[in-house]
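Data availability excerpt. The first of two example chains:
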Amino acid sequence: MSKTASVALAPSASLLARFLAAVDRFLMASAEISNHNGDLPRFGL
């Protein structure tokens, strides 16, 4: 009997997931700036 074990690693984030995360960070930063200026933030693209 083999005494080795294999561990399944989660696949790295796809390029699309990284892009969507970057867009999300940008939109959140834009909303925070608008909030600090007293404006209503624009939602979405």
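And the second chain:
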Amino acid sequence: MTASEIERLEQAARSVFGHDDGDTVIVEEKPSLTDRMRAFFQKRLPARTLPAPGV
């Protein structure tokens, strides 16, 4: 493959996938431990029912 062919392929890839100069750092946001624990318990524990006023 010649250098011009490689350059054309790179340009085509940039046009399809967006500009990427190789320096892009992908950061995946993860929920905190507290948020994960809260979600865990909210899924598994029954919702609390509040007693009617005056009962």
